[in-house]
Amino acid sequence: MNDVSKTSDSIDFYFANVENPKIVPKEKDVILLKAEAVLKNQPNTLQNRSSLYKLAEKSYELGKSDIAFSVSQTLLNRATEKKDTINIANSSYLLGNYYLDIYKNDSSFYYFVKAEKLYKKIKSLEKIDEIYLNKAFIYIYESDYANCESSASKVLLSINPNDAGSQRMKYDSYNLIAVSSNELKNYTRAIEYHQKALLVAQNFLANNKSNLVANSQNNIGVVYQNINNHTKAIQYFKSALSQKDLSQSPSLFAMLVDNLAYSQFKIGDNKDLPELFYTSLKIREENNLSSGVIANKIHLSEYYSENNDTINSKKFAFEALNLAKSTKISGDILVSLNQLSIVDKAKSSTYSKEYIRINDSLQVEERNSKDKFARIQFETDEIIQEKDVLENRNRTLLYVFVVTFILVALLFVVRAQRARTRELLFKQTQQKANEEIFNLMMSQQSIIDESRNKEKKRLAQDLHDGILGRMFGLRLNLDSLNSSTDSDAVQKRHELLNELKTIEQDIREISHDLNREKMVLINNFVSIVHNLLEEQKTSHEANVVYHIDTKIDWDKIGNAIKINLYRILQEGLQNINKYANAKNIKVDISGNVENVYLKIKDDGIGFDVNKKSKGIGMQNMISRTHDCQGIIDINSKKGQGTKIIITVPLETKQQIVENA
């Protein structure tokens, strides 16, 4: 084992060492236990469960039933956790075998039925045949011979009769049907199926062939014993005893010797008797074959009773009864009581009553046992059906969930598409409105340009007809005074100088008028804003105070910014009129070399700026600010009015078409 302990915990390595014929059984136990520990510490994966199944099978094969049981339980728990149907079936099948080996027939039957249902579900036919055969063994152990025949017959109907791998199952099925028929006193059928089993053993089963042939011949001999054809029975017993290597199966050899001796006794052939009985008894006692020992002693009791040796007859009958009671095997107790009631005449009535009591109890127990197996079958079917119903229900719920999810997703897509459509329509409307404003501004600009031209003409006329005429008259007067030197000329020059001063003042006033007109003409956007605010004053009760910075060079600011600022101001005033219930409104438009600022403040009712949803007007203001690459700051509290500050950079190159 040193090489095993030093090597990595590879499962394949452990399996290889278990197969090694040089490793003794005790060391194989250690290998199997270490492999089990390694697998239990691994994650519950499909590979892990497959290795557990392989380990459990190998443990059964090596006769390590306790290890196989522990590994099978682990496999069942892990397979159940992962809903691994194939390994739930495999582990249930292995546990059924374990309980069958220790004669816990009800537990064995439960696990076999569970495995059978699952194997049928996954269509594992070979395993189903093995389960039918094992169930047949359970039925015969419980004396349920009709169900034993039925279960074994299912195996014969299912397996391929020409498949070499199925011949042992075929042999066991024939044998079980024959034994059941014998117990049901259908002796012809029993001999027929024992003969079929014998042919399978002779022609197909090379491994342990002699023992199987001898076993079938012994079974045929027993049937002939039951129909009192002991001569025929002796032929089969002797033929069985002639098989090679029979000594390797002491229980079979002892059974044949005892049966041969009993048939010889029945036909009065006392040659080698009672020595044959004692030979068989010795082998059975040495191998602790309790039921065989009881059968031997019953036969010896009959033999001595027939030869009028009452003492030995009672002695062996008593010994058989005591041994039967210690093993608690009801059938052996009944046979012993029946023999005692025959050989012990004084207590015959007592033994007969005990026989009847135990026989009745045994019949009740057999009925309960049959009912128990039927109940296990029914309850297992019911559990499987409940599981199927639950799976169907879960599947239905899954379908409902998927359909609901798809419908919700479709509804979301439709609503999103509608929202996008509304947004597109809104932008189209906004673009149209912007175009109208632009056209309005252009129209306003045309009016201003026309007014400017008219004013230019008026000024030209004033200069030409007024100032120029007066200056021409002054020039003529001054020329005439150049040749005059009298005192009147000095006075006249003084008057003419005063006239020049008057003309100078008139020219200055015209210049001032021209400058003011230029500012008005340049600031046509300001005029539009001014008109909007004046209209607000006249149309609504709230007092409006506004200031527009005159230092802003509006010619350097794009039309897109002007339009958006105008619409933001317009939307802000509309919101105040609709919702604020304000008494005072203050508007301030200012700027510097980098930004233009629009501030709108009111003393109205205010609102909660943290609300997730805002009105369409406020959303428009935010959207227009973003279009100008600007920043909007909204400060408001309920009962404390609202203050909105818009900051727009002058470097914005936004085009009016981008508002669409």
Key traits:
660 residues, mainly alpha, Heat Shock Protein 90, five-stranded mixed beta sheet, rod-shaped, disordered N terminus, disordered C terminus
How far apart are the first and last residues' alpha carbons, in Å? 85 Å
Radius of gyration: 59 Å
Residues in β-strands, percent: 5-15%
> Can you tell me the CATH topology of the domain at 525-659?
Heat Shock Protein 90
Low-confidence stretches: 1-8, 652-660
Q: Give the overall average pLDDT.
A: 80
Number of helices: 23
**Second rung of CATH, namely the architecture of the domain at 525-659:** 2-Layer Sandwich
Can you write the helix and strand succession as a string?
Answer: HHHHHHHHHHHHHHHHHHHHHEHEEHEE
- Determine and state the CATH class of the domain at 525-659: Alpha Beta
Judged by helices, strands and strand pairing, the structural class is mainly alpha
Number of strands: 5
CATH homologous superfamily title of the domain at 525-659: Histidine kinase-like ATPase, C-terminal domain
| Major β-sheet annotation | 5 strands, mixed
**Roughly what percent helix?**
over 70%
In spatial order, strands of the major sheet run 1-2-3-5-4
Shape: rod-shaped
